[in-house]
Design brief:
The chain is mainly alpha-helical and 204 residues long. The chain has 2 domains: 46 residues, Homeodomain-like (Arc Repressor Mutant, subunit A, Orthogonal Bundle), CATH 1.10.10.60; 137 residues, Tetracycline Repressor, domain 2. 73% of the residues lie in helices and 0% in strands. It is built from 11 helices and no strands. The longest helix has 20 residues. Pfam families: TetR_C_7 (PF14246), TetR_N (PF00440). GO terms for molecular function: DNA-binding transcription factor activity; transcription cis-regulatory region binding.
C-alpha cells in the first residue's frame, strides 16, 4: 500500500493537474500562472515555489507523459511461450496505457502545444521513439528465435503500435472521443495481433 502523499506533494500534483486543465482549455500561451494557482487552490507563490516558470511546469507535464508510457514495459520475449499469447499480453498492456484518462489528458496538452512549437514537437517525437523501443526489442528477440520470418522489427513495431493508436489514441486525443469499452479494446487487440501474425509469416 502506497504511503499518503505529503502536503507539499499534494499541492505539487494539484498544480500539475490544474495546469493540464487550463492548458487544455485555453492553450499554453494564454494560460497564466495566476489562473493555474486559482484552479489548483493554492497561492501564486506556491506555484512558483514548485515551478519557477510556465515552461518548467510544461516540462513536468512532458516528464509525466514519458513516465506513464514507460510504466508498464512489455515482459521479455519467452521462447517457450506461444507467440500469439505473448503478443496479446504486450498489446493489452499498451492498450491499457493508451486508454488511461490521465495519460490521455497529458497527451492532449503535449500534442496541442507541440503543434505551435516545432522544437517541442521534435523533442516529443525523439523521446517517444526511445520509449517505444521496448516493443522493437521484443520483436527482434522473436525474430532471432525464428518465430517471425518476414517482419522487419522496426516497421513491425510501428505497425502494431500505430494500429492501436488509430482506434485507441488519436480519436480520443484529437476528437475528444471517450475511451474504448473493454469489449472493443479486446476486439482491436485481437484483430491487430491476428493481422500482424498473418503478415509476419509467424511460426509457432
Amino acid at each position: 500500500m502506497n504511503a499518503p502523499l505529503k502536503l507539499t506533494d499534494r499541492k505539487r500534483q494539484a498544480i500539475v493537474e490544474a495546469a493540464i486543465a487550463e492548458f487544455r482549455s485555453t492553450g499554453f500561451e494564454s494560460t497564466s500562472m495566476d489562473k493555474i494557482a486559482a484552479t489548483a487552490g493554492v497561492s501564486k507563490r506556491t506555484v512558483y515555489n514548485h515551478f519557477p516558470s510556465k515552461d518548467e511546469l510544461f516540462a513536468q507535464i512532458l516528464h509525466e507523459l514519458w513516465v506513464s508510457i514507460a510504466s508498464s514495459p512489455p515482459a521479455p520475449y519467452d521462447p517457450a511461450a506461444p507467440l500469439r499469447a505473448q503478443l496479446l499480453d504486450l498489446l493489452n498492456k499498451k492498450m491499457e496505457t493508451l486508454q488511461d484518462g490521465y495519460f490521455l489528458d497529458l497527451a492532449r496538452v503535449a500534442i496541442a502545444e507541440a503543434i505551435h512549437s516545432p522544437e517541442r514537437a521534435q523533442e516529443m517525437v525523439a523521446r517517444l521513439s526511445v520509449k517505444e523501443e521496448a516493443v522493437t526489442a521484443w520483436l527482434r528477440a522473436a525474430q532471432a528465435d525464428g518465430k517471425l520470418t518476414k517482419a522487419d522489427p522496426v516497421l513491425a513495431s510501428q505497425m502494431l503500435q500505430g494500429n492501436l493508436k488509430t482506434f485507441a489514441f488519436w480519436p480520443q486525443v484529437t476528437l475528444n472521443q471517450p475511451p474504448l469499452d473493454a469489449a472493443t479494446q479486446r476486439k482491436v487487440v485481437d484483430a491487430t495481433v491476428d493481422m500482424f501474425l498473418a503478415y509476419a509469416n509467424a511460426t509457432e
